[in-house]
Amino acid sequence: MIIPSHKMWIAKKPFKKLGNILIHPLLLSFYVSLLIIFLFLPSFSRYKLEKVNVKRLFLGTKLIWEDLENDGVSDLINTSNSNVGTAGISVILYPSGHIDQWDIRGQFRFENDDFIFTGDYDGDGKKEIYAFTVSSDSIYLSCISDFHHRIFRFTNKFISTFGLVNGRSDIKIDAPHFIDVNHDGYKDLVFIINAGFSIYPRAYFIYDIKNDNVIKSPELGFYPSLGIEGDLIGNGQIEFVPEGYAPKNILDKIVKYHDSSSWLVMLNKDLEYVFPPVEFPGRDGSIIPFGYPLDSITKKLYLLWKMPPDQGNQLWLYQVNSKGNIVRQKKLTEISSELVVYNLFILLRKQKQMLAIPSSQGYIFCFDSLFNCIEKIDLNQSISNIFFMDVDLDKKKEIIIPDYEANTVTIFRNDFTNPAVIHDVKFGNPSRIRLTIKKMGHKASLLTICNDDMIYTLSYHSNPMFYGRFAIYASIWLAILLFTLIVRKTTRVQIVKRFNTEKKITELQLKIVKNQIDPHFTMNAINSVIAAIGQNEKEKAAEHLVRFSKMYRSLIISSDKIKRSLSDEIEFTRNYLELEKFRYHDTFTYSIAIHPEVDLEWEIPKMVILSPVENAVKHGLSNKSGDGRLLIDISLNDSKLFILIEDNGMGREATLRIGTQSTGKGEKIMNQFLELYEKITGIKIDSKIYDLYSPLGEPTGTKVVIGIPLKKNE
Length: 714
Fold this sequence. Notes:
Blueprint lengths: L4 H18 L2 H16 L6 E10 L5 E5 L8 E7 L4 E7 L6 E7 L10 E4 L8 E8 L2 E7 L9 E8 L9 E9 L8 E8 L7 E6 L4 E4 L6 E8 L8 E7 L15 E4 L13 E4 L4 E7 L7 E7 L8 E6 L5 E7 L12 E5 L2 E7 L4 E5 L5 E6 L8 E3 L8 E6 L4 E5 L7 E4 L10 E7 L2 E8 L3 E9 L1 H35 L3 H33 L3 H20 L5 E3 H18 L4 E7 L8 E3 L4 H12 L6 E9 L3 E8 L3 H8 L7 H16 L4 E8 L5 E11 L5
Parallel strand pairs: 34-36
Antiparallel strand pairs: 1-32, 2-3, 3-4, 4-5, 6-7, 7-8, 8-9, 10-11, 11-12, 12-13, 14-15, 15-18, 16-17, 18-19, 19-20, 20-21, 22-23, 23-24, 24-25, 26-27, 27-28, 28-29, 30-31, 31-32, 33-35, 36-37, 37-39, 38-39
């Protein structure tokens, strides 16, 4: 079928318009801006975490920030032990700066730092300070409520005795907090006391402050910690279900519910067993209870059992009824129990409530109420612990994850989005870490992390650069666009000044042809760099971007010239070949041989080497499946510079048969260039093309021989 020429011309018009659009300064500047932003600009997180202050503490000192007087400004609580067997608490009230100090019987001699805490038991809007101390073999509780006078609300309230190991204690106060257990309008203090090898106590405690009454649960034997509490059986009362761990520190015969097993225990408001404890046997196993759903007054009881290592490190999820019977169970195959971090929680994400099980490897496994794994969140960091605190006081708790090995702290929003990370935070003993919020009145609040001997003050806030980045991106694009327009304008002004005579009119014709060459090449070079970016190889992309910038710079500098040195032409061609070599995945190699008698400072027509090299790559080597070779040989013979360009591509005949992606103008433009070059300089450039064949007559490539006469001054 023969297509009329006028229809072919009509078909080519859209492609010509598209080409003009693609090389428009607006789009060219946009391409370069994208490359710069992608390769060189950092990413901007939505929130930012920064160090405000780092302070070293005296050994045994603990600093805590709490808004004691409910005035929107946190006050400083300082605890320490004296050398005379007493413990001290000092308070600095802000913004007044009032300071006072109280001495308490005994010392702060616990294995963790939950011995000092605050709470508002009577609902007057102001917090009291509570402190546990140890004296001899007993634990006492004291309370300070008047911070302007050196008096106590109560002091040295006896709580419990404890066992000793080699004359010392190894007890912990776990998760003291306030709940109105008996519904009398006053909150009661709920806490757990844990002993290690000293065996006892391992029990829940409730202190009814209003009626001055301490309730203690039966000795639990296993190692309890804070689990869940709420109306778990639908009786309108509160029940407590602790977490349980089996360290096997004590003999089975000492207590009934020994620590060779974990035990499911439910306690009522009087800390009595709701049902007989249910055993989950095995040393180093643990049970983690949780209530579901979050927004229900009466919660269903669920349980995660981390089986002991000798039983395969398996994980099981159970639903348990009010009598301690298992009504549903499922083995979780997605994660091993040895990787589970203890902080099990209910996560609200994508408007769904999920059971979230953190893994130390940095994953959050999310399950629905039917125990199906519905999402796996990758945090891209290890998880040592998880804290939930409203750092920015927006009434939503952020998720704080420290990494004790990497010495980092990351704060996520409450659905694990928008992480903000800070490095070089040394934690020391994990059981001594205490996080508090420092309120600053009308200023943004701060997060403090206190460990054995250091306190870090951190600022968590919105990152202005997250939104400002768009202005930066626009500025980069505008700067590149302005530079491009200035270059274009400068080039045009220089051209206009040169063409005042008939010879300059001829040079103008040459400039027009040359200006066809530059955009033609620019499109190909940009394609090469974009191909590198598409392969997500940033280092190579950066390397080829530098090559492209050198070539572009060379084009700009030589925009008013028709000649350049042989060395500049070789460097230009070499950069082009490296770009194309990467673009075509190293399917060809090249070599450049320069004979010793050749002077690299000789001037030759611009693009005289590049143009046939470009044709060799595009029409010969790009269509070859592999093992492509390109040879450039430069020699001198009888005052004539010979440039030989030979490839082992498909040959011109095969190329014409299969067709190419070329616009078809490259060779024609170069011929026009050489004709005008001869007209201006009087130097005739010989250029011959030879088709290469094998002994069997098969095409084996193409050879181009260019002869350039040298003037005497060259």
